[in-house]
Amino acid sequence: MLEAKVWREAATQVFFALGLGFGGVIAFSSYNKRDNNCHFDAVLVSFINFFTSVLATLVVFAVLVFKANIINEKCITQNSEKIIRLLEVGNLSQDIIPHHINFSRITAEDYNLVYDIIQKVKEEEFSSLGLKSCQIGDELDKAVQGTGLAFIAFTEAMTHFPASPFWSVMFFLMLVNLGLGSMFGTIEGITTPIVDTFKVRKEILTVICCLLAFSIGLIFVQRSGNYFVTMFDDYSATLPLLIIVILENIAVSLVYGIDKFMEDLKDMLGFSPNRYYYYMWKYVSPLVLLSLLAASIIQMGFSPPGYNAWIEDKLLF
Question: What is the DSSP letter of 274?
Fold first, then answer.
């Protein structure tokens, strides 16, 4: 919570979720009628995004905990079998095992009890026994992020679901629709200002933009594609997006003038927006965003850019 990167990524998530900084929202809003209640639309979209984010968070954590629990149960089963073999060959004494322990139906609490007992009794040679602690917290700490969350953690968890093929198909259909929905707004943010400025045919321009985006996207499906995804995500989609939003905020509140902008809103809405927006747009938002940008740049200066690479089964930096 004290790292600037955490807050920058949180801000970026808000930008992505609401489509801020991409031009899509501005492009779509340009098709609205002059007297459209954009205030209601903005509040409604913000609340929908908030509740959707909360729902997505619950789903993600539920799936990750489910996956960790499955792996933990498998770990307990495998290590219980190891303990049984150690008891059979005489490496462990049956006397140290509590009488209520049933290895055929052992619980996580019972296994942890047995594990602690063996660790104390066989302190010197414990490492040679090859037993694992099987803590569900350790599995949760291994949870992946980014693309790995969707393509590794979720897919692995869904293999344990009832009717797993159905959920797998639904999950990847959701990803396809999510990508298409995002691209609609992104392409619209590119094509609308060009069409309005240069009066070119929108169909041709859209095809050109899609082909160009497709060509650029090919680098992400190469064997080294994950490196490019990481670099784009860290350096092309976060910091630049933050700078764009700051410039947009400054352009409206300072260059165009917040007072004039508020008058325009009053003319379109038929009522004066709350003064809360005035102070947020003019003072709070620019200061917070600029502080976040400065902190991010300072942090990047202390920690030079880099990425993890796997070479000959060794993790190099």
Answer: P
